[in-house]
Inverse folding.
């Protein structure tokens, strides 16, 4: 399995950039970022192995047409010629990596994959957001210009750069101006998804992803309707935030939202699992771990212990899970 890295939130980005600057004895930098529309679908990656064989993956597992995820493997097989041409284009430009694994990472969107967003009304398609070459322990991410020029498109294969993009300089010494602009863009995307609009579909979008030019830093910014947490994601954790979350019950209410619990249901599908009582453990594990990972900074700042939080997270997630089971059954 070759997984794309987890994308953190804006407050994590601030912390990472500032910590790296302090560690190296440098001032907080001003960095250029490019933003792309975050589409609400399921992760789909295509791997060209060293022997030239092409395989397909979700975020959690390898795929076959018998053991698929939202039809993405079947989609890949039907579009194999275009995907193979993309790999050929990469190798033609970078022949020194012809014997290395190459991965196309994309979001697979369309009817029956997610709900409540503009792109869920489209026919199924893949939106390529990254191409990575695996050279031993090193992961070489191709630049924006490579993705734009090397991806072989058809009417169901696109790149994130085929739609609206956003450009911003972020001064990590004074981030307020950037925060305001990012909020404005995210609200615009949520009110009218640029990808849906491109295809004549009006409806809400999920948010944006911003990446530094060298891809060293990236983060996701979702609109309020898609937030998995009520904790503000566009600022560092401040004393006033901690005061609002001064009890474990309030913390659980803030971080274990319906959106996050519904996302857990979608993750089961990526793992090849169905909504069934026998998969209770897998569902609970994903939801709780996602909360602990995404909200780690809040947990640390609040002085909570994981052993104090986990039972309450588990109780709320279990209640939601069994309510879903009752509907399904």
């Amino acid at each position: 399995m070759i997984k794309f890295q987890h994308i953190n939130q804006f407050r994590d980005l601030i912390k990472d950039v500032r910590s790296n600057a302090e560690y190296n004895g440098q001032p907080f930098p001003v960095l250029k970022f490019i933003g792309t529309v975050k589409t609400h679908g399921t992760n789909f990656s295509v791997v060209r192995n060293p022997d030239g064989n092409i395989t397909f993956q979700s975020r959690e597992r390898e795929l076959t047409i018998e053991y698929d995820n939202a039809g993405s493997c079947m989609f890949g097989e039907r579009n194999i010629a275009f995907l193979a041409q993309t790999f050929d284009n990469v190798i033609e430009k970078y022949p020194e990596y012809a014997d290395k694994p190459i991965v196309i990472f994309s979001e697979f969107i369309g009817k029956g994959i997610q709900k409540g967003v503009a792109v869920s009304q489209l026919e199924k398609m893949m939106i390529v957001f990254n191409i990575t070459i695996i050279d031993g322990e090193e992961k070489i991410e191709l630049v924006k210009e490579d993705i734009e020029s090397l991806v072989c498109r058809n009417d169901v294969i696109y790149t994130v750069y085929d739609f609206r993009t956003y450009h911003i300089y972020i001064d990590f010494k004074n981030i307020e101006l950037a925060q305001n602009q990012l909020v404005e863009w995210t609200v615009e995307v949520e009110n009218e998804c640029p990808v849906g609009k491109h295809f004549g579909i009006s409806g809400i979008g999920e948010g944006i992803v911003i990446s530094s030019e060298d891809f060293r830093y990236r983060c996701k910014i979702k609109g309020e309707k898609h937030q998995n947490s009520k904790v503000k994601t566009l600022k560092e954790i401040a004393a006033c935030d901690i005061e609002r979350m001064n009890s474990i019950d309030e913390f659980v209410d803030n971080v274990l939202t319906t959106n996050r619990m519904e996302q857990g249901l979608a993750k089961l599908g990526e793992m090849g699992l169905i909504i069934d009582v026998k998969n209770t453990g897998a569902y609970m594990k994903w939801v709780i771990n996602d909360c602990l990972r995404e909200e780690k900074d809040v947990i640390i700042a609040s002085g909570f212990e994981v052993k104090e939080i986990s039972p309450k997270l588990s109780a709320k997630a279990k209640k939601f899970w069994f309510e879903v089971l009752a509907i399904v059954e």
User: Anything to note?
Assistant: The longest strand covers residues 125-135.
